[in-house]
Design goal:
Elements: H1 16-33, E1 46-51, H2 57-68, E2 72-77, H3 90-97, E3 103-108, H4 113-120, E4 125-130, H5 136-150, E5 157-161, H6 168-177, E6 183-187, H7 196-204, E7 208-212, H8 215-221, E8 224-227, H9 238-244, H10 252-258, E9 263-265, H11 286-304
Parallel strand pairs: 1-2, 1-3, 3-4, 5-6, 5-8, 6-7, 8-9
Helix pairs in contact: 1-11, 2-11, 3-4, 5-6, 5-11
The protein binds N-carbamoyl-L-aspartate (NCD).
Length: about 300
């Protein structure tokens, strides 16, 4: 894909070459992400950062990326303070914000909302999470982390555990991983399985995957265990959430007994699904994943703005 001027809306836009281009650029961005060096490559560029759903990492990493590369940021956080609360459409919001900013990052509670905003905005729009649909920049962060930690993505077994129905990170991650020679295992309660349309698309591409409820078995076989939070805010009834909220809890003992070399990832925030004493195991990569997210966002911002890091 031509990155300059592109919207980043879905993992489906990326082929293997595109993913590799982002990961190479992210590797070059690490020197700035590690706080050792500042750059002015994005001087005179302005990011509009629109977050209408809660966020810590995604928003702050985009804003930090922009500022550490010499750019500037304006933001709007929460629907109550924006004209969306008055009934303005996302299409019109896009038409307006493009008059101010050179690039827009948005998180919103509805599926395909970034697409609607992008229809109104002539500047690049980056999807930072559209409801339970997708989160493509997290998936790129995840692939970059696997590459940094294990050297390569091909040949690995990746197990995704938890809320595969509402978890947008695992949706985008499955699409991105499908370009590599990997085997995926989807571990979830019956009610939170990976959506059918994603499984179908993997089958069409002849990607090897299986579905199970049993985390123990998946843990023994996997090279990478990708834990996720059960997405409380997506359930219609609190009771339904209560039934599944503690379905999977990863403990230090499980890893030490079954697979001490396992790479453990999580997009965060973590609630109870990874016990605290897992954190200082060598394979616990979720806080390193956060740092990698900054490098990936630096890479994407420079690429869509037509700059070379
Ligand atoms: C995730 C999200 O918002 O989709 N967090 C993130 O961006 N790193 C996962 C989650 O909220 O559970």
């Amino acid at each position: 894909m031509e990155f300059k001027g592109a919207d980043i809306l879905s993992a489906k836009q990326f082929n293997r070459g595109d993913v590799e281009t982002v990961l190479k650029t992210a590797a070059r961005a690490l020197q700035y992400a590690s706080k050792k060096k500042w750059s002015d490559i994005l001087k005179n560029k302005l990011l509009a950062s629109l977050f209408f759903e809660p966020s810590t990492r995604t928003r702050l990493s985009f804003e930090t990326a922009m500022i550490r590369l010499g750019g500037s940021v304006v933001n709007s956080v929460g629907t109550q303070t924006s004209s969306l609360s008055k009934g303005e459409t996302l299409l019109d919001t896009g038409r307006v914000i493009e008059k101010y900013a050179d690039v827009i990052v948005m998180r919103y509670s509805q599926e395909n909302s970034a697409e609607e905003l992008a229809r109104g905005a002539a500047v690049p729009v980056i999807n930072a999470g559209d409801g339970s649909n997708e989160h493509p920049t997290q998936a790129l962060t995840d692939l970059f982390t696997i590459q940094q930690e294990l050297g390569s993505i091909d040949g690995l077994k990746v197990a995704m555990v938890g809320d595969l129905k509402y978890g947008r990170t695992v949706h985008s991650l499955s699409y991105m991983l499908s370009h590599f020679d990997v085997e995926m295992t989807f571990v979830s309660p019956e009610t939170l399985k990976m959506p059918e349309h994603i499984c179908r698309s993997l089958k069409e591409k002849n990607v090897k995957f299986k579905e199970t409820f049993d985390m123990g078995e998946a843990l023994r076989e996997a090279n990478v265990l990708y834990m996720t939070r059960i997405q409380k805010e997506r359930f219609e009834k609190e009771k339904e959430y209560e039934k599944v909220k503690n379905s999977y809890i990863l403990t230090r003992e499980m890893i030490e007994q079954k697979n001490p070399k396992l790479l453990i990832m999580h997009p965060l925030p973590r609630i109870a699904e990874i016990a605290q004493d897992v954190d200082d195991l060598q394979g616990a990569a979720y806080f390193r994943q956060v740092a990698n997210g900054l490098a990936v966002r630096m890479a994407l911002l420079t690429m869509v703005l037509g700059k070379t890091l």
